[in-house]
Write a structure and sequence with these properties.
The chain is of the alpha+beta class. The protein contains 20 helices and 41 strands. The relative contact order is 0.07.
């Protein structure tokens, strides 16, 4: 989007004289300015000159020696321009002027001698002065100079010696604003919108506040009826018919402003609509009434319908594009581009002028579907405020009546819809300061918001602010604070390093340590859904009626909340056993269970499935060892093991309660054979379950550190014919030797009741290195107890 500083001066007095400073402030407080184009930047020390005499250069075939009349007298200049002629008005640069040498790098002119002829100044081509409005003609040759004689004298001041910047009206500054930076601000796609921002940012003050000048309309009906078939898509509309004597000629000042922002002059009615669009941000369109056949209907297109647009391209339309149609078909693609058939032309004598607010989503879809984007559609897709329709329509009507020959309103006003209403927003006292992080007084906030067009009313210490009609992007106090912040200037807000403690928060790592410990012991963690099926619970010896039911289950297999973790683990182990019959399965899971009475609790359950159940490899011993290892990793001592009544899913006589102090924390058991058979399993299965909520509520054990032994040990292996029960009862007895450090089972051979057991005895002295004889004497004492 391009904004003209000269155009802005119609509405405001610009306080800041430095164009770059204006651009920098707009970038910080409004939208990013990509480029600041100072028109005529290279025209300093350049004037309108007149070629009085031209002669061939005596020492160069392609050069001429010219006498040029300037404001500083007649100058002798060597020129290479192919189109230079006597009597021609040219763009003359004095010595000291800065030009682009052949359109490339800049250089400062000085008096030079060229092929023996002294040259003072330069007759310039358009690229050497950065001018773009003087395209060379075909006969101008390779290096044409600017021919000011071809310009209309009634528009430009072309007296000899006139500063070139003044003569060519190159006194404007054009700001190129990035559209993406203001995509939520359709009001900024206009000179009035930007002027309003400059006032709020303190760069300007109002000359005249924007206002709507209404017109009187006759009571005569329109020559057609307008039917709005899609009122939700076209909620606001203005239109009327004007008669004209001819299209007229666009005023030079209007043409210059349009050209400055990159809009090509077409015809006066079209130029007026483009001018109003750039000034107010409301695209309009004018139709030739003579080309409208029958009544007008505003509707949506059907797939397959077509329109020939103003660029003379036939475009197929998608479903849902908003169009205007009459008895002959579609003649306008509303919000994007008008149709060729109904466009104003030299023969037009009746104009239908309209301004319509159109649904931005529909415009966006039509742009994508037709792959056709225009300046109007770019603004429309942002969501033009309803109030812009009235302001734009009456401004265009004012310009039509003032400049189009014989323009006269011939019909009543066609209007529907109302401007949007904005609800007040409460801005709490100090809210802006708290959010921005910089002190903002209530008076300062009130001034900023008033300059932006808000209605501000003090309510105690708070402010009640009503956004203006053109600010559709403001919906709450956060938007109001953002407006204050950007006008204050983000660059003026002091950077403050947050002050906060950097100490990490307290973390309970006990469960993590238990998980890691179990993985070190070869267990794999499983994560199952908290839902189970009645059939699985029944197979595991649990009554489904004792569980909580899901009101809207995904299926029968997920209809109950689990009361234990082991059924799902058992299901997984059974599936793995079918895949690998001779492999052991070491599984654990941490998760919540849901009991009807006790409620939720966090549990840890271990399961070990093994085809071997020997005394040294029994699953129950391995589960116990892994569990105790995990508890130790979490900081707890080994729990005591006591007798417990076996539940339905446990093997009778192979179920123990785990206690920590006097508190029961879980169970250790072997799976009941009938349940193992029901699950189709053959392996021996041991399980352990801990209530982690109970465990973690208990204090951890005090660790007593024993120093590492410094003297070597002596080991003896003995195989004894002894019953297992008798063996373990005797091992519990007080050892006969203070040097006996450990007894471990290394092998088990024989029948269930009487067997040969290989035991390993480890002896060590904390004070010295034992001799073999000393160890044997101690060993004999121990053997007497065991035999």
């Amino acid at each position: 989007m391009k904004i003209s500083l000269h155009w802005l001066s119609d509405f405001v007095d610009i306080k800041e004289r430095n164009p770059q400073a204006i651009a920098d402030t707009m970038t910080v407080g409004m939208g990013e300015v990509d480029d600041t184009e100072v028109m005529g930047a290279l025209l300093a020390h350049c004037v309108v000159g007149k070629v009085r005499k031209k002669e061939k250069h005596p020492n160069a075939d392609k050069l001429s020696v010219c006498e040029v009349e300037t404001d500083q007298g007649v100058k002798i200049v060597v020129c290479g321009g192919t189109n230079v002629r006597e009597g021609m008005l040219v763009a003359f640069a004095h010595t000291g002027a800065t030009v682009k040498w052949h359109g490339g790098d800049t250089m400062t002119l000085s008096k030079v001698t060229i092929r023996g002829v002294e040259s003072e100044g330069m007759i310039c081509a358009q690229e050497e002065l950065g001018l773009t409005s003087f395209p060379p003609s075909k006969e101008d040759g390779e290096r044409p100079i600017v021919d000011l004689s071809s310009l209309p004298a009634n528009r430009y001041s072309l007296a000899v010696g006139t500063p070139l910047k003044e003569a060519l009206q190159q006194n404007d500054v054009i700001f190129h604003i990035d559209n993406h930076a203001i995509t939520n601000r359709p009001d900024l796609f206009s000179h009035i919108g930007v002027a309003r921002e400059l006032v709020a940012m303190g760069l300007a003050k109002w000359k005249k506040q924007p206002s709507v000048r209404t017109q009187k309309f006759p009571t005569k009906k329109l020559p057609f009826k307008t039917k709005n078939a899609v009122p939700s898509l076209v909620p606001r509309y203005f239109g009327c018919v004007l008669s004209i004597d001819s299209l007229g000629v666009t005023p030079d000042w209007m043409k210059a402003r349009l050209e400055a922002i990159g809009v090509r002059s077409i015809s006066l009615p079209v130029d007026i609509t483009n001018y109003v669009s750039a000034e107010i941000g409301m695209p309009l369109h004018s139709f030739d009434v003579g080309d409208i056949s029958g009544n007008i209907e505003i509707r949506t297109s059907k797939k397959g319908e077509k329109i020939v647009t103003l660029d003379e391209v036939e475009r197929p339309l998608p479903d849902g594009a908003i169009v205007l149609s009459d008895d002959e078909g579609i003649f306008d693609l509303l919000g994007i581009m008008g149709g060729k058939r109904s466009s104003t032309k030299d023969t037009t004598r009746m104009i239908y002028l309209h301004a319509a607010i159109v649904d931005p989503v529909s415009i966006r879809r039509a742009i994508i579907a037709t792959s056709h984007r225009t300046d109007a559609s770019t603004v429309y897709e942002k969501g033009i405020p309803f109030s812009a329709a009235e302001a734009g329509f009456y401004r265009a009507l004012e310009l039509m009546l003032a400049h189009v020959p014989g323009a006269k309103i011939e019909s009543e006003l066609e209007e529907w819809g109302k401007d949007e209403k904005r609800a007040p927003i409460t801005l709490k006292d100090g809210a802006a300061s708290r959010v921005i992080g910089s002190p903002i007084t209530g008076a300062e906030a009130k001034k900023i918001l008033t300059n932006l067009g808000y209605e501000v009313v003090s309510k105690g210490k708070d402010l009640s602010v009503t956004p203006p009609l053109w600010r559709k992007d403001v919906s709450g106090a956060h938007d109001v604070v953002e407006d204050i912040a950007r006008i204050v200037g983000y660059n003026r807000i002091k950077s403050v390093v947050p002050v906060a403690p950097i100490a990490p928060p307290a973390r309970d790592t006990r469960l993590h340590r238990m998980r890691d410990s179990l993985k070190e012991c070869g267990f794999s963690e499983n994560v199952h859904l908290a839902f189970v099926s009645p059939s699985l619970l029944s197979a595991c010896g649990i009554d489904p009626e004792t569980t909580r039911k899901i009101e809207n289950p995904l299926g029968e297999e997920l209809s109950l909340l689990r009361t234990h973790l082991f059924p799902r683990l058992l299901e997984t182990a059974a599936r793995e056993e079918r895949a690998r019959p001779k492999a052991s399965q070491c599984l654990f899971e941490v998760g919540k269970i849901f009991e009807k009475k006790a409620g939720e609790s966090l549990r840890l359950t271990l399961l070990l499935s093994s085809p071997d159940a020997g005394i040294a490899a029994h699953p129950l011993l391995h589960v116990k060892q892994a569990l105790f290892h995990a508890l130790s990793a979490a900081g707890y001592a080994a729990p005591s093991i006591g007798e417990a009544a076996a539940p339905t899913y446990a093997h009778p006589g192979q179920c123990s309660v785990l206690k920590y102090g006097n508190q029961s924390i879980g169970f250790l058991w072997t799976l009941h054979p009938s349940i193992r058979d029901a699950m189709g399993m053959k392996n021996h299965i041991a399980l352990a379950s801990i209530d982690l909520d109970i465990l973690f509520a208990l204090p951890a054990a005090v660790k007593i550190v024993t120093p590492l032994p410094v003297f070597p040990a002596i080991t003896f292996d003995e195989t004894l014919p002894i019953t297992a029960g008798s063996l373990f009862m005797r091992m519990k007895a007080k050892s006969a030797s203070a040097l006996l450090e450990m007894i471990s089972v290394q092998g088990y051979y024989g029948a269930r009741d009487t067997a040969n057991v290989t035991l390993r005895f480890v002896y060590r002295s904390p004070e010295k290195t034992l001799t073999e004889d000393e160890a044997k004497k101690e060993h004999e004492k121990v053997l007497k107890i065991l035999k």
